[in-house]
Design brief:
single chain; 106 residues; alpha+beta; 2 domains; 3-stranded antiparallel sheet; 3 helices
């Protein structure tokens, strides 16, 4: 399984009703996700949360690459500093990153 290559970005479009907006996550020429986003009085927190969700989705390709890089760095650190006394911490970090990668790619 492969994902649409990044970079991804967020973009607002005017909705069909006056005062409404739609928020999308897009790749270069492809829509990745539509995050329902409407300008409605009293829902500021929900709009902010939806915008934060869209930004997190848009950052997914970069976060994925950062996780792969972190795994490589941790492998090197454990190899070159096997007696530094932090192997348990590095193993825990590596397991957490690998779990996140599995969630994103399997």
């Amino acid at each position: 399984m492969t994902h649409t290559p990044g970079p991804w970005s967020t973009q607002y479009y005017n909705g069909q009703r006056a005062g409404s907006k739609k928020l999308y996550v897009n790749a270069e020429y492809q829509q990745i996700a539509h995050v329902l986003h409407t300008e409605t009085r009293g829902l500021t927190n929900q709009m902010e949360r939806r915008e934060a969700n869209a930004k997190l989705i848009a950052a997914a390709p970069d976060l994925l690459e950062a996780c792969y890089f972190a795994i490589r760095v941790l492998d090197n650190v454990k190899t070159f500093c096997s007696d530094c006394g932090q192997n348990g911490l590095w193993d825990a970090a590596q397991q957490q990153i690998q779990a996140a990668l599995a969630k994103a790619t399997e």
